[in-house]
Design goal:
This protein is α/β, with parallel strands linked by helices and 287 residues long. The chain is built from eleven helices and seven strands. A hairpin with a 5-residue loop joins β1 and β2.
């Protein structure tokens, strides 16, 4: 194995060849491959209770464009992820063997709520307890879509957490473009300047409708994600949605970047307009 900056070891190149051969069913097989092939570093003794491998903000879209079935499916996907032995193994294989995570919901600029506060997860029991907290909380819906507000919220949560993290990540899931608040690119660039990575889970389970855009994954790639190792994992099918969430959590815990067959992004031409959501909203309002 060869060392890279920061002291972490990279897998043998031969493993990469093996992993590429497993992507025929990317959502179902990627989790297994990432857990047992991409996480070779043994965990080391903990140094302090507030020191973790990664601090992860799960920022979840609850705007009205998400119908009730999608809301339930999204919540269940996160619950299943933190109950998954593969996720538990990914956490255990980190340098410290623990992460910190918080789950927050967002819609418009002024509608943001922490559902589960910062929780240190260092094994199966702590992960299961986090999942149980999500089970107890009812789902809800609210107006407008402010991805920029969600990013700003994520930065605040990270900076106020008091947690020492090797990596700081905001995980944005949503089914539409930014249509309220400051430009999403400004929020993204501000977060990246603070050393935060933003990953995206664009939800594309239905045909674009009112205030939606086609190729939402291309919009997320161009306008939302940023920072070291940032990536997008689109959710295009209800049956694969839970596996997409689980795979994305595993990648964020491990600090790996998914192979191209997994992310399957759109190649939009021309490039997406990062103000498309604001333009659509003004048009719908007659302005």
């Amino acid at each position: 194995m060869t060392a890279r900056p920061g002291g972490r070891a990279e897998p043998y190149r031969g493993r990469a060849v093996l992993v590429r051969g497993l992507w025929r069913h990317p959502m179902l097989r990627s989790a297994v491959a990432l857990a047992f092939l991409g996480l070779a570093c043994p965990s080391s003794p903990a140094m302090a209770e507030t020191e973790v491998d990664v601090a992860l903000v799960l920022a979840v879209d609850i705007s009205y464009s998400m119908d009730e079935d999608e809301q339930v499916l999204q919540r269940q996907g996160f619950i299943a992820a933190f109950r998954s032995p593969l996720v538990h193994e990914a956490i255990k294989r980190g340098m410290l063997g623990r992460i910190a995570v918080t789950y927050a919901e967002w819609a418009g600029t002024w509608d943001q709520r922490v559902v589960v506060p910062w929780t240190v997860i260092d094994g199966r029991e702590a992960a299961a307890a986090f999942a149980d907290r999500l089970v107890e909380e009812p789902t809800r819906r609210a107006t407008r879509t402010s991805i920029s507000g969600a990013i700003d919220m994520g930065v605040r949560l990270l900076e106020e957490s008091g947690i020492q993290a090797g990596r700081r990540v905001i995980d944005i899931s949503g089914d539409g473009p930014n249509n309220q608040g400051r430009p999403v690119t400004e929020a993204r660039d501000g977060a990246v300047a603070r050393g935060v990575t933003i990953n995206g889970l664009p939800i594309m389970l239905k045909q674009p409708g009112f205030l939606d855009i086609a190729d939402l994954d291309a919009y997320f790639r161009a306008c939302v994600i940023g920072g070291s190792g940032a990536f997008v994992v689109p959710a295009r099918d209800k049956d694969q949605f839970p596996d997409a969430i689980k795979t994305k959590i595993m990648l964020e815990v491990s600090g790996l970047t998914p192979p191209e067959p997994l992310i399957r992004h759109a190649n939009a031409a021309p490039p997406p307009d990062c103000r498309a959501g604001e333009t659509q909203w003004r048009g719908s309002s007659g302005n």
